[in-house]
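TL;DR need structure tokens for one chain.
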Amino acid sequence: MNNLLPEVAVWYQDVANGCLFEVVAIDEASGTIEYQMIDGEVGEYETTTWQQLYLAPAEAPEDWRAPYELNAEDQVYSDQTFIPDNWSGALSEIEPELMDLGDDFHIL
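>> reply
TL;DR here they are.
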């Protein structure tokens, strides 16, 4: 029996077959736990099935991004906002046009 509670973004190892997977979602309404294997395969367990698995907590593997073909450069820029140094240019001088919304649209 398994006493581990599933947690999103936590890695587990199925001791019976050695597979590593990460819990990606828990749907309490339907009683399911969605997981993703290291190769990118997605699946789900029912809560009763989860409790019967032989699981151990695991560290995220070093190459877990491999199925997504992400490299170090992709990770560096993933959450950064790009702000141009120079805001001037041909598009900065375009003025918006008034919109004709037709007779069916009235502003109250």
